[in-house]
Design a protein that fits this description.
This protein has about 110 residues and is mainly β. About 0% of the residues lie in helices and about 40% in strands. The protein has no helices and 9 strands. A hairpin with a 2-residue loop joins strand 2 and strand 3. The structure holds FE2/S2 (inorganic) cluster. FE2/S2 (inorganic) cluster binds next to loops. It comes from Pokkaliibacter plantistimulans.
Length: about 110
């Protein structure tokens, strides 16, 4: 498990990119939950963002890959449109401690 950031650095409805523990990560805060995934599109295995910290589609309802436009559910990481439908982003386990610090963990740890 490793520290992502203080919760206050994640803004409701917005995405943010991180490099932690050798992993590129996208985190999104939505409906007071924090979701985190490995920043790698399952289509070509490349980073997702349009520009730094900019991972969401225009409606801010989905994570969108900047290269071919695949749309991913923010809450599940599942690809719901685009060239990798049926695949998904690799989820990271998120926990928030009593000091409001956000921690993440790889699921296969
Ligand atoms: S690389 Fe992401 S949709 Fe093609």
């Amino acid at each position: 498990m490793f520290l992502l950031c203080p919760l206050e650095q994640l803004v409701e409805g917005k995405s943010r990119g991180f490099q932690r523990n050798g992993i590129a990560i996208v985190a999104v805060r939505k409906n007071q939950q924090v979701y985190a995934y490995v920043n790698r599109c399952p289509h070509r295995g490349i980073p997702l963002e349009w520009q730094p910290d900019d991972f969401l589609d225009y409606s801010a309802e989905f994570i969108q890959c900047a290269t071919h436009g695949a749309l991913f559910s923010i809450s599940s990481g599942e690809c719901i449109a685009g060239p990798c439908v049926g695949q998904g982003l690799e989820p990271l386990q998120v926990s928030i401690d009593a000091q409001q610090q956000v921690w993440v963990n790889e699921l296969d740890d």
